[in-house]
């Protein structure tokens, strides 16, 4: 009878080893390839200085295999057995978490992380504690427990360690959206850039700028800019000066797109105005200038720029027409007519919808649901 129990225990132990290995492998690959691929790409770019190509599938597979081999080596070293055998996955899960705990300063010069000293320290403590516990509980580790308890305990340990790795890694969705948009922008996949974080009403300044660059490349800056959240006025067209916010793209990328660099200390609106009126910038500069004026809600200057820089017979992009409809409300003598009857009817509906609300907050939210993709909503409600 005891021999039968011993055989069943050994068989369960082998199955448990395979199950835990498969569970960890599935988690590691999915975590790296699906959820943290953009983080790995950023880290790879920083370490390789952009000189080598990043392969997300191969990277996820190779890292997972290395971590499995590490687990095998740790278990051979520590000799963990029984219900705590899966604790040998601790170093692998810790490294997995540390590898994806990358912050916004990943592209700055001399990038370093506290994991450089924390990881070796934690691993040394882990090895020391594991050795100490193995000596104290040697008899318990050699005891053959119930096979079901053996399986459940080890699976639970692997699940807890995987959760630990996920909690250590970077889970900032805004950061992931920025890296995703940046990745597609580098590949000139402009529509994919616009899909990054498209369902969120929040948008960081970096993501807002990356979207603006993509829209400029597709010629849709005046047509779709306000279909995305705009929280930074004209600053949302340029990166912040803080290098930890700009990643691989900087304002130099925008100056190249515009065809001209500003003078030292020159404000962006002044810079855009000068290159448009002097004709020194590329064709993209006009949309940047007009969009900046709309973002600042400066309709008087916007209308003057449209009159000066646009041909009368040209069809205006949607947001420009929306702005002119607002302008005509206070300047009925303005001669330019909006010929898009559908847009005019929608504007009339917009004005009609603005009455009957009990509070400003209710009005703002209700109007966003129906007209949040228009310049009208931005002009009236965006603070």
Largest sheet: none
Overall strand count: 0
The dominant shape is elongated
Topology order in helix (H) and strand (E) letters: HHHHHHHHHHHHHHHHHHH
Q: Compute the number of helices.
A: 19
Please give the share of residues in helix. Answer: 55-70%
The whole-angstrom Rg is: 29 Å
Q: Determine the strand fraction and express it as a percent band.
A: under 5%
Supply the helix-strand structural class: mainly alpha
Overall average residue pLDDT: 89
Low-confidence runs (pLDDT<50, min 5 residues)? 1-5
Q: Termini separation (Å)?
A: 78 Å
Structure, briefly:
The protein is mainly α. 66% of the residues lie in helices and 0% in strands.
Word description of this protein:
The protein is mainly alpha-helical. The chain has a domain at 2-170. Helix content is 66%, strand content 0%. The chain contains 19 helices and no strands. It has helices at 2-35, 37-48, 56-78, 90-99, 115-136, 138-142, 147-168, 173-186, 190-195, 205-218, 221-224, 251-258, 268-278, 284-295, 299-309, 318-330, 341-353, 360-371, 375-381. Mean pLDDT is 89; it is low at 1-5.
Labels describing this entry:
66% helix; disordered N terminus; mainly alpha; 383 residues; 19 helices
List the helices and strands and how they pair.
Layout: H1 2-35, H2 37-48, H3 56-78, H4 90-99, H5 115-136, H6 138-142, H7 147-168, H8 173-186, H9 190-195, H10 205-218, H11 221-224, H12 251-258, H13 268-278, H14 284-295, H15 299-309, H16 318-330, H17 341-353, H18 360-371, H19 375-381
